[in-house]
Write a structure and sequence with these properties.
heterodimer, A: 137 residues, three-stranded antiparallel β-sheet, 10% helix, 37% strand, B: 308 residues, alpha/beta, globular
Chain lengths: 137, 308
């Protein structure tokens, strides 16, 4: 894989330095056959330093998940070597099956196949709470 | 389908309407004696609670309805591993309304989402217990004649005490309320309750560890039990359980019309010697709870089109 230019795929850019690995892990890209590159601590005029993830394949990425980890990141869709779409992210209002509730008393620990849903309760603090037990993520 | 999982599922106007209905029910019980005839409430209690279950059942009987009851997880299909969703889907075929208590936090929301009949949360772990709050609100209204301009002291376990959090949420929507939070450091009101309710709505509050320092300023003193089942560690429970015990001596400087409340059951937080004091209102709360539950059952069955 040539990490400088990909023909068809996804580039997640402007990731706050240090958060790239978390996005890789949450997107499940550390456990896939796809060609994936992570470039860490790249010099950036805007951010000082940033991480970049390149996926050499047209694949669906969970934008809510990326927005949850780093709402300042951008997602670029590359088709035939050119940028076809540039997506900016926002802090998602709701997260479904992105993170799990850590409260051992929460119903999600016992109820079969119950989706783990979190609601944004404070945008400034990026605070999410489980919709069932209201425990902070 | 309208359910009540949290006290905030009810607007202030709706709570005022429930209080009005409950007061009318107290004055004119015959008027309501057949309202829920041929209707059934299923009381699904997956955690022990005699009084709340009996309160719902008494309320339904007084409305002329019937009761289907499950008391204790060991006697239900939950012991075979059935999910809450499946249980309420099944029960929706037998009853017209469900009152459910469950040890897991958030179980009531799962039930409300799955059931095809209204669900009333009768307590979901340490999370919410809206009908206790309804009982508290009617008690305050009947004792004080208003739900505004009051100084409320909340004492004991303010960290795990779900009744306290619900009561703060409910009373914060009324005018000119002030809270005094009395607890040991380990059992203080969680910061999210302070940030998302008291600070957010600019409700004045203060925190103290010493009841005697503030008791003379209180219109309401709400005592709570330090609950063993909310602790993971028995040592912590034993160390904190006797933190606050209300005795006649501590009441010396209290206002003559201060109202002493407690969600019950009490262990030893209020000395039995106080039971005959005119300020003791905790047994009145029990009666008020039954009327508010009856008013809520009626409201939800009406909204579901089950009764006129």
């Amino acid at each position: 894989m040539n990490i400088d230019s990909i023909q068809n795929g996804v580039v997640i850019d402007h990731i706050t330095a240090g958060r790239g690995m978390k996005i890789i892990s949450l997107l499940g890209l550390d456990d896939t056959d796809l060609s994936v590159a992570i470039i860490r601590n790249v010099t950036s005029r805007k951010l000082g330093k940033k991480d970049i993830i390149k996926i050499d394949s047209m694949t669906d990425v969970n934008l809510d998940l990326i927005g949850y980890v780093d709402p300042d990141a951008t997602v670029n869709i590359i088709r035939e070597g050119v940028l076809s779409q540039k997506l900016t992210l926002d802090v998602p209002e709701k997260l479904t099956n992105v993170i799990k509730c850590k409260n051992p008393r929460c119903i999600t620990t016992t109820e079969q196949e119950l989706p783990h849903i979190f609601k944004l309760t404070d945008k400034n603090k990026m605070e999410y709470r489980c919709i069932y037990c209201e425990t902070k993520a | 389908m309208r359910s009540v999982v949290d006290i905030l599922d009810l607007s202030v106007d709706e709570i005022d309407e429930l209080i009005k209905t409950a007061l009318d029910m107290i004055d004119n019980p015959d008027k309501y004696a057949h309202v829920c005839e041929r209707k059934k409430i299923a009381t699904l209690f997956f955690e022990p609670s005699t009084r709340t279950r009996l309160s719902f059942e008494a309320a339904m009987y007084e409305l002329g309805g019937n009761v289907l009851s499950v008391a204790g997880a060991s006697t239900s299909s939950a012991s075979k591993g059935e999910s809450v969703s499946d249980t309420v889907k099944v029960v929706s075929n037998y009853a017209d309304i469900i009152a459910m208590r469950h040890p897991k936090e958030g179980a009531a929301l799962v039930a409300a989402n799955a059931a095809s009949i209204p669900v009333i949360n009768a307590g979901d772990g340490g999370h919410a217990h809206p009908t206790q709050t309804l009982a508290d609100l009617l008690t305050i209204y009947r004792e004080k004649g208003r739900l505004s301009g009051l100084t409320i002291g909340l004492c004991g376990d303010l960290k795990f005490g779900r009744t306290v959090h619900s009561l703060i949420n409910a009373l914060s929507r009324y005018a000119d309320m002030k809270f005094i939070l009395i607890s040991p450091t380990e059992l203080k009101v969680p910061s999210y309750v302070k940030n998302e309710t008291l600070k957010k709505f600019g409700i004045p509050y203060e925190q103290t560890e010493i009841l005697e320092d503030v008791i003379d300023r209180l219109d309401i003193l709400y005592m709570t039990r330090i609950q063993k089942e909310r602790f993971f560690n028995e040592e912590d429970y034993i160390r904190l359980r006797d933190s606050y015990i209300l005795t006649p001596d501590k009441l010396r400087t209290a206002k003559p019309d201060m109202c002493i409340m407690h969600p019950l059951p009490r262990v030893n937080e209020i000395s039995v010697a106080i039971d005959n004091d005119s300020r003791a209102c905790y047994f009145k709360q029990v009666a008020n709870g039954k009327y508010m539950r009856a008013a809520l059952i009626m409201k939800l069955l009406r909204e579901a089109g089950s009764i006129k």
